[in-house]
Amino acid sequence: MPDLSSFSVHDDAFAAVLGPEPKLELLLEDDRYPFAHEAGVFIPDANELFVTSNRFQDGSGLERVQISKVVLSGASGRVEREEIPAGRIVMANGGVNYNGGILFCSQGSPTQPAGLHEMSASPPYASSLVVDNFHGRPFNSANDVVVHSDGSIWFTDPIYGFEQGYRPTPQLPNQVYRYDPATKGIRAMADGFGRPNGICFSPDEKIVYITDTDWIHGDGTTDNTRPSSM
């Protein structure tokens, strides 16, 4: 049996993915800012990984998030990284493969709405807005996203942006949404969460898993009586 001490295995199928000798290896780091925080969207054909940073202050003192492309087999033979212009994808967070490119969550700003943006995986990395409101009411700060095989887009929308000081007062509850690009229809699929965060489907897509990270709020406060669950 392989040493899985670095991994938490709750299903034998995951152990099969890991293989007999799994290991953790540091591929890339940057002491200037936390460049690898969310998304982690792998483009198989190019052997490239798109990640979003955590919030940081740039040289001008502005708080922002940086999208990066990690080239896993660069021309130099080493792992390389390219900083990608975000365009209208403000405070990018979660992401998923979509139409050969990436679908990013944009958490928004005091003046720019939160929502979902589609971005090309190739230069010049053109992007376009997919959705930015629920029947006229602006999203809080779209956090994570997944795409169903029927084409529908499911995403979480907690109020972290407001708590962290870069979004206006929320106009919606902490909810999970389903958007249909074909009909432009959008529905709230689940509520009652403290802070809905990560989201994914089971392999047969009959179950959607959502993490509730209400234990820690955007201002950094924690409370052991609040949910920290899936």
Automatic annotation (TrEMBL):
InterPro entries tied to this protein: 6-blade_b-propeller_TolB-like, Oryzine_lactonohydrolase, SGL
Pfam (any one): SGL
Domain of life: Eukaryota
Residue ranges of every copy of the SMP-30/Gluconolactonase/LRE-like region domain listed in the record: 127-213
Protein name: Putative smp-30 gluconolaconase lre-like region protein
